[in-house]
């Protein structure tokens, strides 16, 4: 199991959430590929932590559907499974739809400006085939509604469901079909600026549900 460079830059022991995030991101970005075996000693060496936070992180990753762990057998990265991804996509779309519906009535002008700026970065990143910057800009765009919606459960549900969908996003943002999302984002901004909460919510939902169809992302 090849691992990324050691986390030697950390001046303190990694917290449990840091361990989870590091392994999750390595799965999502393809460093640990589908079917790859994850060995505790190698993860411990990579992250510089004891076995306990590693096991806690793996339990969370199993609940998120990113790994398969069976007692007495190898722990492996879960294969790309269409049914599980679609299930995660439906949950993520529903949460973002709810966030938009709750956020639009209280949205400020500066928050709309943040969305516009993020969509501009998103378009430029796609134009340069920079998947990492595109993902970051897309996250910033959708984070405005999530942050403004006032429902503290929405981020928690997304944290559970979104990682499984992220692998699809990464593949989609590597293709030209993702460019349709720039237009979809602009329409969401337009509807939000008009105060059309239902319209913005439905457009947001469609943006997420279209991720795997080849038309949006």
TrEMBL record:
<dbReference type="InterPro" id="IPR011711">
    <property type="entry name" value="GntR_C"/>
</dbReference>
<dbReference type="Pfam" id="PF07729">
    <property type="entry name" value="FCD"/>
</dbReference>
<keyword id="KW-0805">Transcription regulation</keyword>
<dbReference type="GO" id="GO:0003700">
    <property type="term" value="F:DNA-binding transcription factor activity"/>
</dbReference>
<feature type="domain" description="HTH gntR-type">
    <location>
        <begin position="13"/>
        <end position="80"/>
    </location>
</feature>
<keyword id="KW-0804">Transcription</keyword>
<keyword id="KW-0238">DNA-binding</keyword>
<dbReference type="Pfam" id="PF00392">
    <property type="entry name" value="GntR"/>
</dbReference>
<dbReference type="InterPro" id="IPR036390">
    <property type="entry name" value="WH_DNA-bd_sf"/>
</dbReference>
<dbReference type="InterPro" id="IPR000524">
    <property type="entry name" value="Tscrpt_reg_HTH_GntR"/>
</dbReference>
<dbReference type="InterPro" id="IPR008920">
    <property type="entry name" value="TF_FadR/GntR_C"/>
</dbReference>
<dbReference type="GO" id="GO:0003677">
    <property type="term" value="F:DNA binding"/>
</dbReference>
<protein>
    <submittedName>
        <fullName>GntR family transcriptional regulator</fullName>
    </submittedName>
</protein>
<dbReference type="InterPro" id="IPR036388">
    <property type="entry name" value="WH-like_DNA-bd_sf"/>
</dbReference>
């Amino acid at each position: 199991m090849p691992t990324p460079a050691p986390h030697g830059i950390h001046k303190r022991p990694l917290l449990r959430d840091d361990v989870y995030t590091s392994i999750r991101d390595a799965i999502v970005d393809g460093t640990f590929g589908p079917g790859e075996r994850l060995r505790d000693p190698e993860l411990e060496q990579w992250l510089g932590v004891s076995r306990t936070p590693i096991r806690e992180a793996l339990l969370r990753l199993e609940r998120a559907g990113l790994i398969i762990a069976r007692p007495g057998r190898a722990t492996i990265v879960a294969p790309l499974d269409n049914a599980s991804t679609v299930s995660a996509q439906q949950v993520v779309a529903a949460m973002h739809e709810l966030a938009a519906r709750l956020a639009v009535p209280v949205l400020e002008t500066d928050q709309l400006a943040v969305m516009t700026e993020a969509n501009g970065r998103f378009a430029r990143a796609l134009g340069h085939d920079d998947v990492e910057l595109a993902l970051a800009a897309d996250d910033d765009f959708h984070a405005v509604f999530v942050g403004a919606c006032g429902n503290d459960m929405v981020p928690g549900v997304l944290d559970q469901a979104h990682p499984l969908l992220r692998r699809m996003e990464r593949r989609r943002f590597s293709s030209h079909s993702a460019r349709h999302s720039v237009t979809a984002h602009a329409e969401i901004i337009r509807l939000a600026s008009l105060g059309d909460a239902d319209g913005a919510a439905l457009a947001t939902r469609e943006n997420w549900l279209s991720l795997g169809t080849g038309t949006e992302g």
